[in-house]
Amino acid sequence: MKEFDLIRRHFTQAPGDPDVILGVGDDAALLRVPPGHELVVSVDTLIRGVHFPAQTPPSAVGHKALAVNLSDLAAMGAMPRWITLALTLPDQDPDWLGAFARGLLDLARQHGVELVGGDTTRGPLSITVQIMGVAPVGAALRRRGARPGDRIMVTGTPGDAALALQRMLAGQALDPDDPLRRRLDRPTPRVAAGLALRGLASACIDISDGLCQDLGHVLTASGVGATLRTSDLPLSAAFLAHMPAEGIDWSLPLAGGDDYELLFTVPPERVPRVHERLAGTGCPVTEIGEIEAESGLRVLDPAGDRLSLDRGGYDHFQIAESS
User: What residues pair up with 289 in beta bridges, in sequence order?
Assistant: First the structure.
């Protein structure tokens, strides 16, 4: 199949967004940003063996390639609108490509996102998705803005994806429908939660690289410190079922990464409104600590003692590749 036939077969869709003046098929897309809004743009690359294990089903690869970008826009409180896709393929495998496209485009339809362009080339498998969204002028959430006294909150249950990857790297087989494996392969982008947090959260970030590391970005940007309580961390039943009797491996929820949950800060008087709004989205949320004036991050174990971690999160140039 020729390159342009490949694009037409798997990625060309009937236009449905009136703000897409020109989409797939020309040298560039033409998009209209609604009046009174700002354009919010992010891009992520996924490499086989680095961002997902080689045995990951292609539909899950397509899902995750978009989900990680949707998570970035969720952290900004932006409404996702359009994506472009740069796809590098080692060969033409129609079955793999068809399943990949279904995984990506099914999630795109769920969020009203339209594919408007991209590129295909031959080489080691690599997937780059650029996402564009909109937010009312001045309404986007940012990493800076946390203030002493703000509560630290997190959506979902951190640690599930990291535990799944740890078990797979140890040679344990995990069924694709295993709840931990699904959290790794098919993360749930918290777009509705991000939109609900506009006007409430003082700062926000997604915790794709590890809760402590990403919280550290908020603290640095805001010029503050924090205390985090492991006793308040929301851990799933599937996660706890695999923890040894001698105790929880706190490095997984605190530094494992791949969660794509939202971590945000909020003034204490707004906490009830946060619970009310996020209940309407079906997204669980938990308070796990406080912002403080003293710089640095203090993590307390369940007994209230300081907890020390070997690392704070994921680093492309320090962490060994997955396989």
Answer: 152, 228
What sign for the dihedral angle of Cα 145, 151, 155, 156?
A: positive
Edge-to-edge order in the sheet of strand 151-155: 203-206, 262-266, 151-155, 285-292, 225-229, 296-300
Length of the chain as a residue count: 323
- Tokens 């449905």 belong to residue: 16
Three-state helix/strand/coil letters over 134-164 = EEECCCCCCCCCCCCCCEEEEECCCCHHHHH
CB 74 within 8 A of CB 206: yes
Looking only at Cα atoms, what is the longest distance across the chain?
62
Q: How far is CA 85 from the centre of its chain?
A: 17
Residues 309/244, Cβ–Cβ less than 8 Å = no
The full 3-state SS of 290-320, as one line of letters, equals EEECCCEEEEECCCCCECCCCCCCCCCCCCC
Using DSSP bridges, classify how beta strands 37-47 and 79-89 pair: parallel, antiparallel or unpaired.
Answer: unpaired
Buried b (16+ CB within 10 A) or exposed e, 268-306: eebbeebeebbeebebebbbbbbbbeeeebebbeeeeee
Digit-coded pLDDT (tens) for 261-275:
999 999 999 999 999
Supply the pTM of this predicted model: 0.90
Residue type, 182: R
Contact between 298 and 306 (Cβ < 8 Å): yes
Given the structure tokens 């990680």, which residue do they identify? 68
Contact 181/169 with Cβ under 8 angstroms? no
pLDDT tens digit sequence for 115-134: 998 888 889 889 999 999 99
Q: How many angstroms separate the CA atoms of 100 and 46, rounded?
A: 13
Q: What is the DSSP string of 48-94?
A: BTTTB-TTS-HHHHHHHHHHHHHHHHHHTT-EEEEEEEEEEESS--H
Q: Bridge-partner residues for 83, per DSSP?
A: 115, 131
Q: How far apart are CA 57 and CA 44, in angstroms?
A: 19
Cα separation, 91 vs 171, in Å, equals 28
